[in-house]
Amino acid sequence: MRATENNDDHHEIISPSTIDKKQSRLWLAPLWTVIASILGVAPPTRSLIQSTLGTIPPLQSALALLMLSMGLTITPQDLTAATRQSNIVLLNMVACFGMMPLLAALLAKTFQLTPPHAIGTILLGCVSGGQASNLFALLAGGDVALSVVCTFSTTVVGVLATPLWIQCLLKTTVPIQATAMLRSIASLVLIPLTSGLLLGYALSPKLLHPIRRQCPNVGLAATMVLVAGGASNASSLTTTIGCSAVAMSCLLPVLGGAVTLGMARLLRLSNEASVRTLVIEVFSKSPTLAHVLALRHFGGAAAAIPAVAMVSLALLGALVAAVWQSVDPQ
User: Membrane-crossing residues (predicted)?
Assistant: First the structure.
């Protein structure tokens, strides 16, 4: 979730002096993800969470709330900053909806995944960027405003791109109702995201400022609901998912990030902060969206890999951020 609220807060949060002050709080996000996943799979709480947070209505509501909070945090300053680095935004779009879906399909074919696992892997490759990328960009010394706009742009484009890719890559595996998936993404993503944007422009600054300050907390809470619910659903499939779900949930983002970093070096992109942001944006897909779409259209078995990815991507992002944080982007 975005870690800034307005232009003044943005400069305050990403300055070197204040990162040290707030670093411990920011680093708690991956830890909370792990805690939520443990609660989802632990025998004392698993059944309760699976029957409540693991059902489709709470998961859909949490995802919509996550999108609403994201829309509320977008500012005109973010959009202006993005126009100065439109090449990065475009590269991210190409990687997110060009390279990653094809890479997911290649992995599914190479490792001869079962149809449910193939569906989960391809769904993960076809969805938009995840909101956790904004936090990891901050921790890694990236460009937070650019990260927010990259996530926002892929989220909007994904309303059409995701169902089209799913239709193209999975039509020989399972029957696909692209129109139904388009409606799902519109209701889960486009409507709450647009509502957040409109509210951000309609509310007075005095009223909007305290709301924006709470958006990261709201986004984190929504993510915890999604992770706990997803983990509880995945735990019921532990006898069948084995190591393949863990491997695919890690291999896809690692390969995608590595290829993106190599591409950035070949193109000789000079702004290191932008390069870090681009790499993080590409590998930080939205496993929460993939998980909800899998449950809604393909069943629980297909949702296993996106559910595991909720945890593995959080840990991978934290690891990458920790490595890059020790290296000055300048």
Answer: 26-44, 56-75, 87-106, 118-137, 144-165, 185-203, 215-234, 246-267, 301-324
156 contact partners, CB below 8 Å, separation of at least 6: 190, 193
CA dihedral 132, 135, 139, 143 (to 10 degrees): 110
Task: Give the Cα separation of 81 and 65 in Å (integer).
Answer: 26
* 56/269 Cα distance (integer angstroms): 42
Q: HEC string of 208-246? A: HHHHHHHHHHHHHHHHHHHHHHHHHHHHCCHHHHHHHHH
Q: What is the pLDDT of residues 202-250, one digit of tens each?
A: 999 899 989 988 887 888 888 888 888 888 877 766 555 567 778 888 9
Q: How many residues comprise the chain?
A: 330
Q: Alpha-carbon distance 221 to 329, whole Å?
A: 31
The tokens of 40 are what?
């989802």
Question: For residue 112, what is the DSSP state?
Answer: T
Nearest to 126 by CA among 174, 93, 92, 165: 165
What gap in Å lies between CA 118 and CA 142, rounded to an integer? 33
The contacts of residue 127 (CB under 8 Å, 6+ apart) are 158, 162, 285, 286, 287, 289, 290, 293
- Of 153, 28, 19, nearest to 78 by C-alpha is 153
Tell me the pLDDT band of 27, cut-offs 50, 70 and 90: low
Domains of the chain listed by start with CATH number: 7-12+22-324 (1.20.1530.20)
Name the phi and psi angles at 4, rounded to 5: -125, 155
Give the predicted TM-score (pTM) of the model. 0.81
Specify the 3-state DSSP secondary structure of 194: helix
